[in-house]
Structures are given as structure tokens and as C-alpha cells.
Amino acid sequence: xxxxGERLKEALRLRDMTQAQxxxxxxxxxxxxxxWVRGKYCAKYENIIAIxxxxxxxxxxxxxxxxxxxxxxxxxxxxxxxEKRILSLTHVMNNDGKEQVYRYAEDLSGNPRYRxxxxxxxxxxxxxxxxxxxxxxxxxALIAIHDIIEAARKKKDNKAD
Length: 161
Fold this sequence. Notes:
mainly alpha
């Protein structure tokens, strides 16, 4: 019978995840996760459940039981049409192309202009980010941002009238 550590290592490999990602998700040290993988420590039940959920595997399988690896129920995710189109394009790409798509999407997700959770009309959010993603540190830059915010506030107030 396989151990928890062996199963965890296999699930991480299949999901292309790292021990560091698991440690961040569970808010435990990477040494703890390494200890689990090496069989030095046994994870608490709640951590086994959390890991199984994260890796989408059967918690009993992860614990070493002789059961199917994958959960019998497949979680459903609502995917928009544009997300389906993007995913369909990646099927014809090699791993280098997929990595480029991922990097580009990751870069865009850091830009408030392209985030779904940022309100575009909010001048405070948009003015606080430089085009290159860097931080604004100089007094002149902060004054310029303040001026932009004030101008946007006045413009917004004039539209409301």
C-alpha cells in the first residue's frame, strides 16, 4: 500500500504543482510539506482534505487507501465563451506556446485595466498604477497623481450635475 507522502508526490507531479504552492495554500511551512512527502510527518486530517480538494483527488486515495485516485464527482466550472475559445486555441500549441499564453495572461491579470474586479471609472485605482506596472515613489509623481485624481473627481462631479 502506498504512503500518504508517495501519493502526495504523485498528485503534485500530475497536477504540475510544487510543494511551495501547497504550503502557501495551506499556510504551512514548506518544510512541513517536505516532511509529508518524505514520510517524516503525517498530515492532519483537515490538511489531507484541503490537499485532496486542491489537487482534485480522492482524500482516501491520498491517505493511502486502495481506492480510485480521482473523485467520482467532477467539479463543474462556469466557463464563458471567450474562455472556451482561448482554451481551444491552446490545444494546437506546444508547451512553449502554452507557456507564452500563460505568461501573457498573467501579465494582463496584473493590470487593473484588464481586471474584472476593478471598476474602470475609479480614478483612484487607475491613477495609482504606472503603465509599466512599477510603483510610484517620487514626490513629483505623487503630486501628478493627486492632480489627476482631483481633475477626474471634478469631471465626475460635473457629469453628476
